[in-house]
Predict the structure of Aig1 family protein.
Amino acid sequence: MQIQQRSRADLNDSKIRKNHSLSDQSDILSDYQEFDIDQPQSEKISDYYQIQRNQTAKPSKLDEKQYFGLKEKLALIDFNKLMDDLSIYFSIALRFFLILSVLAILTDCIRDYIIKKRISLELIEAESQVKFQKEYSFVLLGSENSGKSTFGNLLLGFELFDTRKSQQSQSLPAVIINGTLFGEDDGQKIRVIDSQGHENQDQKDFENASKLIYLLKKNPIHNALIYVLEIQNLISENSLNELRLRFYKSAFKDFLKNTIFVVSKWSFHQNHTDQRAKENIDLNEVYQLLQKLLVAVGFENPNPTVYFIDSFYDPEDQLQKGMFNQSFESFWNV
């Protein structure tokens, strides 16, 4: 009895399970049927998937704002990067331009310097050629025994002027000799005019002086008047010194301006140097005595050009030779 009842119960359970199973299958089938209803037709499947992709790719309104905002930020970043790159390129170009400008300026300066240097050298060479082609003329003035003729011979390089004052030479108002400086073959051309000294106030001296003035005015081409001083004659304050200078002052225009004073017996030998030191005779003393004499003649605030040259120097003595070269170079470049 119990077995029969259990079998019925089992049978009922079995029916219930079967019904559930059929119900589940029916649900699954209905799902498949619903799925089949939603699926596109086979001939339009490609269009369907294309629409699905488009719908998936299309952003929402919020996504659009983010998208365009991101796009603007990217564009701004690209613009800033472009400006930075342009700034770098401009800076490089500017530096390159500045370097080229500096190089151009330096090139122009160097070229101008070279041109000016070349012109300067050409002018110096031209002046040198003109200087040697031009003849310099000197007029020797002063008292007898002042060393005028000796200084003239020194300039010419030979014993051409009569230093013994023969009767024939004293009868002439002046002696003119052409030559070259120091007698060198390629030396500067010079003309030396040696006047007669004026030691007396007799008629003969004034006649010679007048003839000299006439000769010089007839041939006015002379570069300088060289007034040769004798140191002892200047120290002794000989009255004839003033007389001579007054005569030359009236005879020559701008006499003091065109005159070089030369003390031609200023020996640089050690014995003579010691002797002058004992007598307190120095360059400043001689200069002051000459200024005093020129003031007495009538020159106001005289500032004469004076050179101390030893016309009797010993060329074998290096000290005397050196001092002579130094003093004569200053005289020649005056």
Notes: The first strand starts at residue 136 and ends at 142. Residues 104 and 290 are 60 Å apart (CA to CA). The two ends are 170 Å apart (CA to CA). The beta strands are 136-142, 174-180, 189-195, 224-229, 259-263, 305-308.
